[in-house]
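Entry type: protein chain
Record version: 2
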Amino acid sequence: SQISSGAWARLPEEARLADFDHVFLWMRGRQILVGRMWASRDGKRRAHFPMIALVQGINLAFDPALESILARLDGVAAGCQAARSAEEVRQVVFGAVGAVPEVSLMEAAPATLPCPRAAMLRFAGDFQANPPAHTRVPAVPGDVLRGLRFWSRVCPALVPVDLPLLFLAPRDQPWIDVLVGEPDPQKLFCLRAGPAALPLGCVETPADPVTELEATDLFKTAPGSPAAGGERSWISRLLRH
């Protein structure tokens, strides 16, 4: 509906992304959907709508498998973009169906992100008290995996465990869009809206130096956590998810 309504076409060129080129993670209770979205053309050569490939997981320890899943989806995207016929596209997709993602047996490294600590603490407190339907949070350009790992640990620990969360990460951009609850068409406006149309929600000030912040450190010091004098246990909420 965003495409049909011309919502992005009405934005100034400098306020919109040139095209679809995203990674997304959708967490819904015990289910996850990890996907790639890219610019494509259909059989009639229309270039309005993106193509999407995704992996569905149930009761999956997705963090250790996330890198493997994203690498496989990148391969599907590259294969589809190089294909010159519908049959070649089918072969690429069918070749990836049923593949089991590789899971590292090594202990996962801490999820970290360079971000302003004071702004992040304000964000965590506000998000926990009243999760907004949409928030644009900082990420590392060119490192989608790092941003997704950080925010997919932070946000689920701050909201009810059964609340759906959709993370939309445009590749090579310094933000990730976080959608809370069921994503209606209006919320998906963020897909191709640049910062001039939708600014970051975690705004730093001159007093907020950018530091390397661990997700667990943010939990422990955020308002409402046990370490900050609150009653809610972030670790129990995270493990339940």
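Comment: Confidence is low (pLDDT under 50) at residues 226-241.
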